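Q: Structure tokens for this one, please.
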Amino acid sequence: MENKNSAFKEFISPILVLVLICFVVTFLLAFTYGVTKPIIDENTAKAASEARMELLSDADNFTDSGAELFELEPGKVYVVDAYTADNGAGMVVTVKSNSYGGLLTAMVGIDKDGAITGVKITEHADTPGVGTKAQDPGHLSQYVGLNQLSSEVIKDHADSVVEVTGASVSSGAIHKAVYCALEQYRAMGGVK
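A: Here is the predicted structure, written as tokens:
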């Protein structure tokens, strides 16, 4: 009998304690997630709305267009959403594009005439100080005022946009994102 009791203490008891700890930790994580998720979602929506207003300052408010979303390269470069300004000032298109560190998220403002009003990178995993050079305002400002890009590939240099040396993959990803946003604008027939 003593042999069974020591086996329980030595093997089964620690397993039961670990299982109980796992259940308690899992419950606490699920509870914390349930409490914080609505707050995180609200803050994310607020930040996206502020970014849209920054990119298209003539807009009064935005509504999700509900349009079919354009994919340049499925799973690699694709539109996430397209919001149109309620007053017809233009639209802001959010695009995911495959970059050096993974997918980056770019928001592109396009006015009612089809000209780019601004580009903003809202999420990325590129190397700080290297890949992020392509996200500098000086580089992104090259797109402002353009209403078309002759190619989805930045290295074609047919456009007035020049890639950042040392950040060619990130530059290319941003370029494809802007190209994809313009294609989404065209596919929707502009702003109505």
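A few notes: The chain has a mean pLDDT of 90. The two ends are 84 Å apart (CA to CA).
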